[in-house]
Amino acid sequence: MTTGLPEVPGAAPRRVDPFPAGPASAFLAACRRQAVHHTPVWFMRQAGRSLPEYRAARREGSILGAIADPELAAELTLQPVRRYGVDAAILFCDIVVPVHAVGFGVDVVPGTGPVVDTPFRSSADLRRLRPIEPETDVPYVLRAIALLVDELAPLGVPLIGFAGAPFTLASYLVEGGPSRTFGKVKALMHGDPATWGALLDALCGITVTFLRAQVAAGAGALQLFDSWAGWLSPDEYERFVLPATRRVLDGVADLGVPTILFGVGTGELLGLMATSGAGVIGVDWRVPLDAARRRIGDERAVQGNLDPAICLAPFEVVASQARDVLRRAGTDPGHVFNLGHGVLPETDPGVLAALVDLVHDEGRAGVVR
Ligand code: CP3
Fold first, then answer.
1. What is the CA radius of gyration of the chain?
2. Which residue CA neighbors atom 11 of ligand 1 most closely?
3. Atom of ligand 1 nearest to the CA of 58
4. Would you kindly state where each structural domain of the chain is located, as residue ranges?
5. Which residue in the list 87, 94, 226, 307 is annotated as catalytic?
């Protein structure tokens, strides 16, 4: 990149500073498809059971108890930042926290995931989803973010706030827990579209308020997890889900923080997801990243997409597959390296630490050294 000014004969060409103002976060810059000094990397589920320090700090019982303790939640958020040198922290929280906080009756069972006492069945259940008031319903989340911002700001590491996207949240509320078929939630969306629409409206309202509160408390980016959207056909996604996802993203657009929309198995949905308003589209490991970039177009950044299971193989395999991801990411700006889904609990943390170094050294998308 040159200045366009006349060059002094014999002198090195003048360079435009690609990082004009403030401490440069490679993560935020890549989300905005700007130049970076290195490819940024973080890992979904970077906090968690793969870290011995997590297992030591996390008490027995539901993860909701750990999340409700701001000092502990902040500590669990920081552990992977210290160990791996990742370019972003993600708040230690869970997608069911806001619906739990408004009293829907949901817990997170270790080894299973979210489980709902009385699943959502009909419009009579809508009154169980009142609007959220973050200062009174989730003060511990706001407190954890405040603690984290104090720790992370001097390091120049942004904090990612997050929420479940309306469909993925609704799937837990309607199914009552994890599902293989999503039969109940699909029966509701097709069989009673009015109630389905009202359910998503209620979840949109809660989610927008929850995300806005996270940014007000200091989160520097937002990820919307639509983890199970890939179980929908493109037609179902477009008719029954995308409008609500768009409303959530519209509801935070004025905040000016980067937004990431992620789901698993979304190969056929990537083009639609690119119209959601999210600035970054998360891609799972099934779609080669160059193909994903073509489906998404060049107005969005991409995040991904090494298969988390590969991290259990010998490091030569991890390195070669990671290099393949970096090669497919190309040289245009706008790549945040990540896994294609969360870190598996049996992953050796040493592998992830070496992977961070490899990405920092070898990533090329938008890199100006
Ligand atoms: O490091 C991070 O990624 C931050 C924390 C985080 C958690 N959950 C903590 C957690 C994040 C971003 C989530 C999001 C989340 N929660 C999603 C979307 C991401 C994805 O994986 O697709 C979903 C679907 C949930 C619901 C949920 N919570 C599941 C499916 C599980 C796993 C159940 C299990 O024990 O295997 C949880 C529990 C959970 N949330 C753990 C962690 C670290 C597991 C460990 C524990 O209970 O200590």
1. 21
2. 94
3. 48
4. 26-362
5. 94
Instruction: Please answer whether residues 302 and 270 qualify as being in contact, where contact means their C-beta atoms are separated by less than 8 angstroms.
Output: no
Lowest-pLDDT range of 21-35, 63-77, 327-341 = 21-35
- Residue 22, sorted as left (phi over 0), alpha (psi -120 to 50) or beta, turns out to be left
Residue 12 has pLDDT above 60, yes or no: no
Range with lowest mean pLDDT among 1-10, 20-29, 312-321: 1-10
CA of 110 to the centre of ligand 1 (A): 10
In the chain, beta strands by DSSP E: 89-90, 106-109, 113-116, 159-164, 221-225, 259-262, 280-282, 301-306, 335-339
Q: Active site includes 32?
A: no
Nearest-CA residue for ligand 1 atom 8 is 94
CA gap 177, 171 in Å, rounded: 8
Instruction: Tell me which of 44, 108, 264 to substitute to probe ligand 1's pocket, judged by most ligand atoms within 8 Å of the beta carbon.
Output: 108
What's 314-343 look like in SS3?
CHHHHHHHHHHHHHHHCCCCCEEEEECCCC
**Domain 26-362, CATH 3.40.1380.10 — does that match?**
no
Give the residue among 248, 304, 306 at the shortest CA–CA distance from 278.
248
Catalytic annotation on 237? no
| Mean pLDDT of the 82-93 span | 98
**Close Cβ partners of 51 (under 8 Å, ≥ 6 residues apart):** 79, 80, 83, 349
Task: Determine the residue of 41, 42, 44, 45 to mutate for testing ligand 1's pocket, defined as the one with the most ligand atoms within 8 A of the Cβ atom.
Answer: 45
